[in-house]
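Interim report, section 4.2 (structural modelling).
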Amino acid sequence: MTKALNELSITEAARGLRAGEFSVRELWDACVSVAKERNTELNAYLEIFEADEEAMAVAQKRIDTEKDAAPLLCGIPLAMKDNILIEGKVASAASRMLENHVAVRDATITKKLKEAGALFIGRTNMDEFAMGSSTEHSAYGVAKNPLDVSRTAGGSSGGSASAVAAHIGLAGLGTDTGGSIRQPAAHTGLVGMKPTYGAVSRSGLIALGSSLDQAGPLAKTVADAKILFDTLEGKDELDATTLPDSMRNTKEVPSVFRIGVPRDLLSKGMDADVLAHFNETLSRLEAEGHTLVDVSLPTSEYALPVYYVIMPAEASANLARFDGIRYGHAARGETLLSDYVLSKTEGFGPETVRRILLGTFVLSSGYIDAYYRKADAVRDVLRDEYNTAFKEVDVIAFPTTPSPAFKFGEKSDPVSMYLEDIFTVTANLTGMPAISVPMGTVEREGVLLPTGMHFTAPHGADQLLFKIGALVTKETL
Amino acid sequence: MSESRTSAEDVQRLAALARIQVNESDLEGFATEFESILAYVGKLDELSLPDTEKRVPELRNVFREDGEPFVPGTWTEKIVGQFPEKEGDSLSVKQIIAHD
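Predicted structure of the assembly:
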């Protein structure tokens, strides 16, 4: 059976475009017409853009003249998370605060994607300022999981995940502060990757936790995720934390992997069938000649508490800039102070307020040593433990989440929602790269829901993840 | 620290520091949630750390050579376009110092 154009992967579409089987315009129209139809239900896109005729013409011309030398992303329609700036478009981070905020410039990654000839279908729904694991904190309604619309698509990049899983975007861009690319990927059957901190520029992203944030791909295949990562990565003068080539890991990608498995951490809190898939996947890899090694990462059980100190601390500092003076929601009261207070109070949703208050608390005099400085010190310990483990293994395996996609309203208290990120946050705290790839489905109430296999690689060894990911999905890269 | 109670007054005080108003009716709810979050985060208390100095990341110069400044005015129109209130190209704000 031939796939509809919107159902293609980047690799398949790039091949078809070069073979002249269809045009850039036909690919765009196929995606956008289905997007307009399905988005009413899914709410994956907050806005579907008008076709950019000029960009489309340029992309078609490049494919026609440069053929195979044209970038693989040329003419490919992508879904962009609403916290990544595209010049002239609204970038709201799904907040009332930035409802009318028009980006004055492109993010560095937007610029790179445009240079590669990629097209943007629209900006996707998310938890407000990327704070959440379900898009239930969006100011514009939830994004639904196309596999079961009574369930969330995960978050915070849930809109991009929903769009790609519903085939209304060939691939998508997300940002990941504690799992916000990988967890939605796991819940929608996609590949999601968080690059090494500093591998991809953060310039032009609306910041949540500046020492944790990275942008990365949500894609239908590992090959597609790699195409996007290879386009996005690289040192950027506009982001001083991007890594120069001299600091990148040049470790050769092995053909036989030593896979570290932290058994101690998987003994409780996991759904039995998810754990069974995890074990089966590992057994299959072992049967194919890879080795499994037990690793000990005892401090990992403190990773989530550490994250819920560091992230709100950084968020409260980053979000202080939204004061209603220069841009964004601007309420006016009697005094300048009341202008600030009213703008913030009206502009921020409840989860954002919760995290700003929490961040204010952990940074306040009298508590900063017990919370923030302690948490910061634990990051070093976590990094050391991983580095020690990486002397024996090439990658470390986890399930991405303990359970499949959950129902709306199921995790109404904050801590139960925070626990969604239990396996993913450590990679953000250590700055190491990580990927989630589909590892089979589990049945819930008669519906088959996907689960995710998660690998962490040493700092800078992003390319290892595509190789091991492709072994799980049985792709040839 | 995990035993400490968070009161509505604590939430009120933090909100004032963060320049956010929390409705009276929401104060108790925030206080209860805070308690459960802090109880969870308070797990850090039981962890004893090696008595080592905080490491600083490897230092390197991240600044480019000075030169090639933007042509003045390149961004003005776009940035001024976002101002909620303005006079010409200037951002207008309320008077900061009171005269009384």
